[in-house]
Specification:
The complex is a heterodimer. By secondary structure, chain A is of the alpha+beta class. Chain A has helices spanning 24-53, 61-64, 79-103, 107-137, 163-166, 196-205, 241-248, 268-301, 303-307, 311-336, and strands at residues 142-145, 150-154, 160-161, 210-216, 236-238, 251-255. In chain A, strands 1, 2, 3, 4, 5 and 6 form a 6-stranded antiparallel sheet that branches. The longest helix of chain A is centred in the last third of the chain and has 34 residues, at 268-301. Chain A starts with 23 loop residues before the first helix and ends with a helix. Chain B is 64% helix and 3% strand. The termini of chain B are far apart. By secondary structure, chain B is an all-alpha fold. Chain B is elongated, with a radius of gyration of 21 Å. Chain B folds into 2 domains: 1-103, no CATH class; 104-146. In chain B, helix 1 packs antiparallel against helix 4. Classes of the chains: A alpha+beta, B mainly alpha.
Chain lengths: 337, 146
Amino acid sequence: MGATVTTTEEKIWDGGNEPMGVSYGKMMMWFFILSDALTFTGFLAAYGFSRYKFADSWPIADEVFNHFPFLHGSDLPMLYVALMTFILIFSSVTMVLAVDAGHHMKKSKVAFYMFLTVIGGLIFVGSQAWEWKNFIKGEYGAIETKGGSIIQFVDAEGKRYKVSDLAVTLPKDRVQHESKNGIWFTSEASLPDYSVAEVIEGFKANPNVLVRTQEAYFDKNDKKGVHPTLNKEKHKTILTREESLARLNDAVYVVQGASLVRNEYGSKQFANFFFFITGFHGFHVFSGVVINFIIFLNVILGTYEKRRSYEMVEKVGLYWHFVDLVWVFVFTFFYLV
Amino acid sequence: MAHEHNLAIFRGRLKFKSNEQKIWGVLILLSIITAIEVVLGIYKPVGLMSPWLTPFEGGLGAVLMNILLSAFIFLIPLNLIFLVLTIVKAYYITWDFMHMRDEKASLRRSVVWTFVFLALYIALIFLLEGDYIYEIYKTSFIKWNF
């Protein structure tokens, strides 16, 4: 097919001219990127829909994503994602440098910069995996109520309190059902480490602990059952001790970490969108790394040197920058806004 | 081909000597913008946490003003700043890393305008609908927080 061969002698398409001044492959890469960008727009718009819908009860990103490697237990919101963003932008830079070196037909320079780009991509995917691990494992745990709301615990100063510190040990009343028992060979998910009864007993035994709901606190709202001193505008509402005990009567599940069914951070949609959008983006990064690696091998083998054109590097470069571009928006809408 | 690069950014106010220098320059710009975002995101200045204007009330004129100035009425300034900075970053990634600056206007327009139109359209529909359901949850007789 003449149309897909990229040589310097024959740059025109089969019809005899070159629409929009670009080669066939590059133009199609642009239109693929356009359609992929619209897919991500759809996802982010759906995320925005859920956020607007649950505007007052959406989890606060700074409280969820506040881990940094090797600094356990310290509250460091934003820094890790900022680092990830920087890594991805930097790997974009090495990619443009590779494209630039390709224009000057410097084979070894192209190979070197492509290699750096692949490494940057791998570091980013690894960072995302670490982020997912923290998100899935969770930190404080929470209780889900009959209506599906999440309630969390705080101490007398309003600091978060772990469910694991709260629960007392009661005699076990229930064992995990396994497929070897019973006749239908079905099993259930592993039981949480603490039962609801254990958490409630622990709560009753510890008079300093209070319940924090999903709802944002607004000064103008009704103050019934709301803690008089601990609450801050637009932060999650902390209840009085009496109201906390009343709210715990509706407790159904102990939630630790996050899954697609429920998560300890709040709205169920939050974890679903997080997994789906960052997962889809991470998949793009991964495929970008694979494609970059293939092109890197081709550069080393001298394929483009023989072709007298490094346009393939430019085309994968477009894809790689697009991945970076999407991350800029994911960063804004998941972590900043 | 794309050997001739347009080496000026900021509408020609900042010119670079080579394409390589321009790339580093753009990296510095993007890093500065990200740093500003992170600092604002961590400290969340109180002055930027509530909208600058309250909605206009009254007849058609007020409705029109609410639409025209919606970014200042319904968004808190902090989020507005984040949005603008994100679009600035996206602009420089597309124009300088993806070399949109060097492409013909026909290619640039067919990619960028298509995206901008459809993205604004779907965002408008989804966000208006989401806000509508938020109002329903808040004001009608649905109890969901129990």
